[in-house]
């Protein structure tokens, strides 16, 4: 049932289930995150991702592209997809970082989009979900952990509306 919350402690899952059962999850999210972001195109996504990267991860290789993908599933791909392409250009080996996130994140509050971008950008420096990875996430987005949980609650709520 709570497929998006599987990695969380039981107490959190129980609270979430309680909000769902009492039909209060939507209201909880709406009150906490009333805004909607305007980032709809791949171009706008790239601009936002690039700004974050320049501000917080100056030393990582440049961001080559960013796009929304309707085929990506937030469950299967956790929160998005990050690809690394090593391209041989002349004698130099160049790393290109590109970033793809599930198209459903066109909807939703701006905070969830920054959390997802922080997650994907952090993967440029750390591939695994380890301590250093989450430190990077929090460096880019200080409220990272709360926002990841709330994004997962939002995904749960979306599914319950189908
Ligand atoms: Zn990840």
UniProtKB/TrEMBL annotation:
InterPro entries xref list: UTP_pyrophosphatase-like, YgjP-like_metallopeptidase
Boundaries of every YgjP-like metallopeptidase domain copy: 36-147
Domain of life where this protein originates: Bacteria
Residue ranges the record marks as coiled coil: none
The protein's name in its UniProt record: YgjP-like metallopeptidase domain-containing protein
Organism field: Gallaecimonas pentaromativorans
């Amino acid at each position: 049932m709570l497929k998006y919350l599987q990695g969380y402690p039981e107490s959190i899952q129980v609270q979430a289930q309680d909000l769902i059962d009492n039909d209060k999850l939507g209201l909880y999210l709406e009150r906490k995150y009333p805004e909607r972001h305007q980032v709809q195109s791949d171009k706008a996504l790239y601009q936002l991702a690039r700004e974050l990267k320049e501000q917080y991860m100056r030393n990582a290789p440049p961001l080559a592209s960013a796009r929304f993908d309707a085929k990506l599933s937030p469950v299967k791909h956790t929160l998005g997809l990050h690809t690394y392409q090593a391209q041989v250009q002349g004698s130099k080996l160049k790393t290109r970082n590109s970033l793809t996130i599930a198209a459903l994140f066109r909807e939703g509050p701006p905070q969830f989009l920054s959390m997802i971008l922080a997650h994907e950008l952090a993967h440029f420096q750390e591939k695994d979900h380890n301590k250093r990875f989450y430190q990077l996430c929090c460096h880019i987005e200080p409220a990272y952990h709360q926002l990841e949980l709330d994004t997962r609650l939002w995904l749960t709520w979306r599914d319950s509306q189908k």
